[in-house]
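re: that chain from earlier
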Amino acid sequence: MPIAADGAPMTPTSPHLRIFLLSIAVNAASYAALGQVVPSSPSQDPAPQTQMAGPEPSLATESGAMSHSVESADIQGPAMGPGAEAEMNAPLDPASAEVVPVAGMANGMGLVQNRAPVHTNYRPFRRIALAAKMGTLGAGFEVAVPLSRRTNLRSTGNIFSYSHTFNQDGVDYTGTISLRSMQTTLDWFPFHGGFHISPGFFAYGGNHVKGNASVPGGQIFTLNSTDYRSSMIDPINGSGKITVNNAGPGLTVGWGNLLPRNRRHFSFPFEIGAIYEGAPKIALQLGGSACDSTGAFCTTVASDPSFQQNLSDEQAKLNKDVEPYKFYPIISFGLAVNF
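^ sequence. v structure.
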């Protein structure tokens, strides 16, 4: 025999039993009228069920005007059009379903409703991002637009200049590094996060290293393992230049999306990679007069075949030394804002 919460037995005439059976009848009527139900929390235990022998009694109101059958209920709602009926009969999407509590349903039970779908389509060029960065290509400015949910199109301009003075084999050099480049990159985000793989194409606007050389009069210098002494009257002077290809492919990997899909307006991109620019090319030019190591015999270097051969051999040796350096490393970090 069922026992009420206050410990009293629920007899067929007990008000506790009537309330208990009435709640079951309301639940059954709700199931029949509104369709599917699911428990709001899987951790909750189902309500205890009570079995009674014999036919299930019907309950009547005090006026006797209405009765509810425990076994079934007939509740009729407003008529639905074909579109509404099709929508109600459509299968539910578990990923977009939520439980809506309904008054009178026991144990946290409720109706399953489909939430409004989250729009995740990203139309090309709908947004724009601007970024400033620093790296091995110099100071840069970037513009990016989305192409799809996983890809961005990015264009970058870089500029860098640096000067330095040093001495090598008795020759004083003043060198200047000048980097001017443009790049177009496709950023692919394979995991929908910040990690990206970015193939790209790089074009250079005259990337080079220039140097001016001078040897004070009376100073000994070495050229292709041969010692010379700079003339006191017409000291040695000249120039050198290192150039690379004007364009080449590149590949970088990094972290940070200039156009975060979570609609954040700021990001801090970082990337590392390399550009293929081919082997650097070194060109040397020297003028003035050079003497033997004793300084007794001097000639103009432009008219000295032996000196020109040593200069050519020295240039070939330098080009061979730099031939393996066909890739230029890329490391950069920056700050981006999108609109």
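The radius of gyration is 42 Å.
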